[in-house]
Amino acid sequence: MHQIKIFKGLESDLSSLEADVNAWLASSGATVVQIAGNIAPQSALADGGRSPGLPSGAYLPSDVLLIVHYTQAG
């Protein structure tokens, strides 16, 4: 049966997203059919203003979405 698994992360922390996907692949026994991804524009701040931790002119990291299309044995 074909299934999907969705992973979401930030462009500033791609190594963590990569580790999560690789750990899931290793533990799941899934056979990957296809992996697709997308990087979205920067997320809007909740208050509509600037984050106090960001320097002037800085942008929030973009959201990264990975969709793994896989089959599971059994």
Labels describing this entry:
single chain; 74 residues; alpha+beta; three-stranded antiparallel beta sheet
Summarize the structure.
The protein is an alpha+beta fold and 74 residues long. The protein is built from 1 helix and 3 strands, in the order E-H-E-E.
Average pLDDT score: 85
**Quaternary:** single chain
Instruction: Please count the helical segments.
Output: 1
Distance between the ends:
9 Å
Strand order of the largest sheet: 1-3-2
- Give start-end ranges of low-pLDDT stretches: none
Q: Which outline best applies?
A: elongated
Class derived from helix and strand content: alpha+beta
Beta strand %: 35-45%
Question: How much is the radius of gyration in Å?
Answer: 16 Å
N to C succession of SSEs: EHEE
Topology:
Elements: E1 2-10, H1 14-28, E2 31-42, E3 62-71
Antiparallel strand pairs: 1-3, 2-3
What does this structure look like?
The protein contains 1 helix and 3 strands, in the order E-H-E-E. With 74 residues, it is of the alpha+beta class. The longest helix is centred in the first third of the chain and has 15 residues.
